[in-house]
Write a structure and sequence with these properties.
By secondary structure, the protein is mostly helical. The protein has 5 helices and no strands. Bound molecules: protoporphyrin IX containing FE.
Length: 139
């Protein structure tokens, strides 16, 4: 059950991040004010990323493709789900969280959009780089 939650939530997390990033870049280029809806897009993406982090952590301890697979590090598919995906994704979610915290400290709308756009975008690229695509798309 956890595996299917993690697998389905992945679509929601990626979509929420793409929306928050595109919205911030558009706000930046239009030089408009940072409004409540801009904060909401960023907050929703942050919350879904954190829920996915918690589900992923539990999955890592319970799935045969998590902790257990660390004994099969020479197998690249096992290394991906047991080590690379969890580690890189945790770093990505830390960057997204830093983006969220830093946007709050900015006074200007331009500064707020920048923090979310750049840090969320780097986080998204990291996430995409370590998704077990063959496992996911085979479903
Ligand atoms: C936003 C962050 C994350 C995204 C978008 C994501 C996405 C995915 C996707 C799409 C899969 C393939 C699922 C499938 O079988 O269809 C997967 C598998 C897995 N993920 Fe994540 N993940 C994230 C974070 C994490 C974290 C932080 C951990 C652990 C600390 C983790 C642990 C795992 C494990 C162990 C598997 C293999 C589970 C199995 O198929 O039995 N994930 N993840």
């Amino acid at each position: 059950m956890l595996q299917s939650i993690h697998s389905t939530l992945a679509y929601v997390v990626l979509a929420a991040l793409v929306i928050a990033i595109i919205n911030s870049f558009l706000g930046l280029s239009a030089k408009r004010n940072f409004e409540k809806k801009d904060r909401s897009f960023a907050l929703i993406a942050l919350i879904f990323s954190h829920v996915q982090l918690v589900v992923g952590l539990i999955l890592w301890f319970t799935s045969p493709l998590g902790k257990e697979a660390m004994s099969q590090m020479s197998n690249s598919a096992m290394r991906l789900t047991a080590v690379e995906h969890p580690l890189v994704n945790i770093i990505a979610i830390v960057l997204i969280t830093i983006g969220w915290s830093k946007h709050k400290k900015e006074d200007s709308s331009n500064g707020k959009f920048k923090k979310i756009a750049y840090l969320y975008a780097v986080g998204l690229v990291l996430l995409l780089s370590r998704i077990p695509w063959s496992l996911w798309l085979a479903k």
